[in-house]
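Box S1 | Example of a co-folding query
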Amino acid sequence: MNCILKQNESSWDAMAESWFGTTALPVYGCYIPTEEQLQLFPDLHGKKVMDFGCGSGHSLRWCAEQGAKELWGLDLSGKQIAIAQKFLTENGLHPHLIHSAMEAEYELPQNYFDVVFSIYAIGWTTDLAAAIRNMAGCLKTGGHLIFSWDHPLMRCLDAEQERLIFTGSYLADEAFSYIQRGQPVTVQNWRLSTYINTLADAGFTVERLIEESDKSCLDRAAEFSSGYYTPWKASKIPLSFVIKARKL
Ligand SMILES: C[S@@+](CC[C@H](N)C(=O)[O-])C[C@H]1O[C@@H](n2cnc3c(N)ncnc32)[C@H](O)[C@@H]1O
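Box S1 (continued) | Returned holo structure for S-adenosylmethionine
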């Protein structure tokens, strides 16, 4: 395991309890439409689903509520896996949970799942191509991959005095480090073209790219704030994106 993954794993173990149920389906991200509005998922009745970066297991519970028959999840943090196991079991569910980085080599059934998804976790991988190849490998032909993450423009813009100022570069795919809830973490910022080209290389076709802010944000005149995730910023750019792709 590389040193970024080791650091992120120990930070996620330390933060896990404070992330219970945060950013989970039907929510895709920050101030963007929900799955109830977007309807990207196919009918899940009787389907097998796999969540990469499953966190506390709340997205998997949502899948069960939609009728999914088999629930699988994977997460870098052993603490998150333990929390998800307890939460799902208490909800009468029997998930298959794996403690691993999404980009690592691990045993997963191949050509097995109807839907593979990842809600606000993909930017944590240190190897996007390997993670997407793993997602492709376990998905049935014709099955769907759906994932969400910060919009890459977020890293390029600062909000100052009621203006968005372009302070970064959209040309670079780069890692960046910061302190999250008191823990050192490193995440990756990739251009949208990098996601789309990596999906194409792994045998996917992109069916939808969502770059929208929630209608309620657009309808109300949001007061300026210089924070990272704010309704004001969401009234100018999408803070998160969602991609839906199909395995060919
Ligand atoms: C924002 S949380 C996702 C929450 C999740 N959607 C839910 O329903 O609770 C991000 C998750 O990604 C996991 N993670 C971070 N790096 C990872 C990696 N390289 N591979 C797999 N999971 C990772 C973290 O441990 C954390 O649980």
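The CA atoms of residues 56 and 82 lie 8 Å apart. Helices lie at 3-15, 35-38, 58-65, 78-90, 128-138, 192-201, 215-219, 231-234.
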